[in-house]
């Protein structure tokens, strides 16, 4: 095993592109491991989210004449998975708008709790409302969503300015928000990065022989050089 490890290290030393790809891979694997740990610790598959709608920011709606803003657009929020039986009225929750589209999540406040005996879903359900909306949600036609749609409970906002907004801008640049597919410009950016990476690998080796040749030539002084030096100092 140590022999293969030494060969791999030698290969990375000689190939700068391979070394860069290896480091990028380590960073990606590390990020995946950290993200997985956070998901386990917070007991939800969506532990950190970016708010992309103004439905929880009253000050974004002039008709409300309010200066309050619970969750502004671009806010980076942390949530935790909890037993839905412990969710109280007034709690801010994150839930699916529709199980057929699990990636479309809503962050609204619970304004009413429907017991399982009275719910069309035969489970505890929640009436929800955005703080800036004029009325409660009606995603299902019943006026409430079942507890099985709840992904987690809002905990706090990460106080890093502009980070959430930057994430939204990158997402909007790379993906079509309505279809979820890559935008043409996103494909072009990825293609340009790949081309640049391979171009760097092709060009870089061509520089090495010439530099080594120049270095070898400079190591051996010519007679003319010695003569000019003695003349300058004479």
Tell me about this structure.
The protein has 234 residues and is α+β, with helices and mostly antiparallel strands. It folds into two domains: 2-42; 48-174, Umud Fragment, subunit A (Ribbon). The protein contains five helices and seven strands; from the N terminus they run H-H-E-E-E-E-E-E-E-H-H-H. It has helices spanning 2-14, 16-42, 163-174, 184-219, 223-233, and strands at 48-50, 76-80, 92-96, 105-114, 125-129, 145-146, 150-158. Strand 3 and strand 4 (105-114) form a beta hairpin. Helix 1 (2-14) crosses helix 2. The radius of gyration is 30 Å and the shape is elongated. The N and C termini lie far apart (63 Å).
List its salient traits.
2 domains, disordered C terminus, 234 residues, alpha+beta, elongated, Umud Fragment, subunit A, seven-stranded antiparallel sheet
Write the layout of secondary structure elements.
Elements: H1 2-14, H2 16-42, E1 48-50, E2 76-80, E3 92-96, E4 105-114, E5 125-129, E6 145-146, E7 150-158, H3 163-174, H4 184-219, H5 223-233
Antiparallel strand pairs: 1-2, 2-7, 3-4, 3-7, 4-5, 5-6
Helix pairs in contact: 1-2
In short:
Helix content is 42%, strand content 17%. The chain has 234 residues and is of the alpha+beta class.
